Amino acid sequence: MSGLLRKTPNIIRQMCRTGKRQNVDVQRRSVTGSRTTRPDVLPAMTHLRPFTAYSSPFRISSCSKSWNPHHVTQKTLTRLYSEKTAPGPITKRPLKSSRTKQPSRSNLPFLSKTEDVMRCTAFATADEFHLGTLCHDLASHGYNELPSLPRDASNVLLVGVKNVSKEQDSGAIFFFREGAVVFWNIEESTLKHVMQILERHEIQPYEVALVHWENEELNYSFGEGHTRLVKGEIVLEAQLEADDLILQKFAFSNALCLSVKLAMWESTLDIFVESIQSIPEMLKSRKKVKLSHDDVMQKIGELFALR
Description:
- The protein has helices at 2-31, 41-47, 57-63, 69-80, 131-140, 188-198, 208-213, 242-275, 278-284, 293-306; strands at residues 118-124, 126-129, 144-145, 156-161, 171-176, 180-184, 202-205, 216-223, 228-230, 233-237.
- The protein is α+β, with helices and mostly antiparallel strands.
- It has three domains: 2-72, no CATH class; 105-263, no CATH class; 276-306, no CATH class.
- The longest helix is centred in the C-terminal third of the chain and has 34 residues, at 242-275.
């Protein structure tokens, strides 16, 4: 019995040396992807569990210093961690361009005095017009109302103008109660004068710079055949009667009115979105939103007003 006790330390040291060699062998085969198992290793692995952990071969490899730890660390990282791209810098929304097809008068070709091409211009200046008071104010300045529109067009005021830009057509101005005005063959000085008169009869007017930025301009002329729109230019039938010609101008004016009004509504919506742009960013980053109850109710009211 005493001899057996004396041999016990030597047996334990021999088992530890054998376990270390087999442990390194297990590490090499686990990293290289080998799926073969030697029968003489499995018993050793069973006996060596109290000395060495085998739950993760990558942890053993990263701690081992006996063979190429850099290679093992690189393979471990590529398998345990996925690549994450850093978020890019937050850029401010660029300035939006005009929503109308021709936002500037300089976009249209220059109209010389010898050409038979005239100009039609549309503006949206306010949410609504007082057509009753506007009609009396225009009459006091020499602009007469034309009774050429049908009875169902009660929300439209048609005014005739003597100072025309070209002699090929008479001047006409369509005022829509929705806050839009369309000029047909009106010279520049008369247009500015009418716009000044219009300012006194606007309900919730828009910014002047935005009004002139979101305008709509089209060239028009007279030609053979039916009235049509060709490459952004209106061609009116030359043989039409005066009343029929007014009705066709009214149809185009109604479309231009909707175009400029839609552009103004979209611009107003953009301004509202810009005012609350920081709120989603703060919520996404889990920051506290610094808005009182009154501020929230004000934003809700602005949103309903846009509807």
